[in-house]
Amino acid sequence: MNSTKKESIGISAIINEVNKFDNIHEELNKREKEPVWDGNLAIYKKDDYKKSESIGRIPVQVKGRESTEPNKKEIFYDIELVDIENYRKDNKGAIFFVVEIFPDRSTKIYYKIFDLKTVEEILTENIKGRKTKRFKLKQLEENELIRICIKFIENLRIYNQMQYLSCEKYISRFKENIIQFFLTQFFSIEILKCLFFNL
Predict the structure, then answer these.
(1) pLDDT in tens, 14-58
(2) How big is the CA angle at 59 (ends 57 and 60), to the nearest 5 degrees?
(3) Beta strands in the chain (DSSP E)
């Protein structure tokens, strides 16, 4: 089976899974792809797909491969580290799907969530000189897709909030250091207020 056919079957398997849920809208491409991603899954509160009902959009990457072992609960897959670096650059992360294709053309879906916290942990490892890393993927259980999508979006919001608080803490510490510097230079409180009227 050539790579184009495997890609097509893999994408179709994800679309079929998405179609089980009224509040997930797939934006997947079989032919024209972005450099890394195969599209997005858009999650809504309701099934009318209004902007006001949007919960979030999740970048996804889909790989198809042939297999003769349909009973596995987990698989291992080598993922290019440059793709994971791009997950970080996009500042969202991604859900990575592998669709195993059996001789009768039936399929089974496996996944790994690459939220930004996970991405940062991977990229801070000693990976110098390596092009790929092997990851364990879990089987996607029946009706599990919406749960992992919601989890991904929640993790992204928590991560962004933590980054914001960390930035605020840094700015606050910087302001304190500036005030301390001026105090050591014998500036009066009145001058400090003029210089830092918003502190």
Answers:
(1) 999 999 999 999 999 876 556 678 999 999 987 777 777 789 999
(2) 130
(3) 24-28, 39-44, 54-66, 74-80, 94-101, 107-114, 132-139
